[in-house]
Amino acid sequence: MSMDASGVEARVRASFMRQGAMALLGATVAHVAPGEVDLHLPFRPELTQQHGLFHGGFIATLCDSACGYAALTVLPAGQEVVSVEFKLNFMAPARGEHVVARGRVIRSGRTLTVCQGEVLVTEGGQERTVATMLATMMAVQDRAALTG
């Protein structure tokens, strides 16, 4: 079943609004298109580790969600996604005014969708990549079955 771009965006934003973790972090949806989702996270001292950098756990959480929502954009209505696995490589310190996590679908199958994530930090008007992710998402048929 195909969905138009506005339907895809509405579906992602509705799901995002149900996610307490993203609200806790203060993340927002910055971009949605079929196979693509970008999430934005502004700097706050509460999101840092002991050296004043964005904490790696929050970077991983944001990128995992960006990849998951990218996967959701290519699934039929009525399906949801859960993470099966991911690998995150940190390449530079995450210091700056905000972070953007970009999730992109590499290949989508009936059950598994493989995504690539990129995490960028903007500091002083300059954007640089600080981490990359390879993630596998699994389609699930019934959201009610996930919640109990």
Keywords summarizing the entry:
single chain; 6 strands; 148 residues; alpha+beta
Write up what this structure looks like:
- With 148 residues, the chain is of the alpha+beta class.
- The chain has one domain (5-147): Hotdog Thioesterase (Thiol Ester Dehydrase, Chain A, Roll), CATH 3.10.129.10.
- The chain is 28% helix and 42% strand.
- It has 4 helices and 6 strands.
- A 6-stranded antiparallel beta sheet has the order 1-2-4-5-6-3.
- The radius of gyration is 15 Å and the shape is globular.
Instruction: Determine the strand fraction and express it as a percent band.
Output: 35-45%
Cα end-to-end separation: 27 Å
The CATH architecture classification is Roll
Overall structural class, as computed from helix and strand content, comes to alpha+beta
Strands ordered across the widest β-sheet: 1-2-4-5-6-3
Number of domains: 1
Question: How many distinct beta strands?
Answer: 6
Summarize the structure.
This protein is an alpha+beta fold and 148 residues long. The chain has four helices and six strands. It has one domain: Hotdog Thioesterase (Thiol Ester Dehydrase, Chain A).
Topology of this structure?
Elements: H1 5-17, H2 20-25, E1 28-33, E2 36-42, H3 56-72, E3 80-90, E4 98-108, E5 112-123, E6 126-140, H4 143-147
Antiparallel strand pairs: 1-2, 2-4, 3-6, 4-5, 5-6
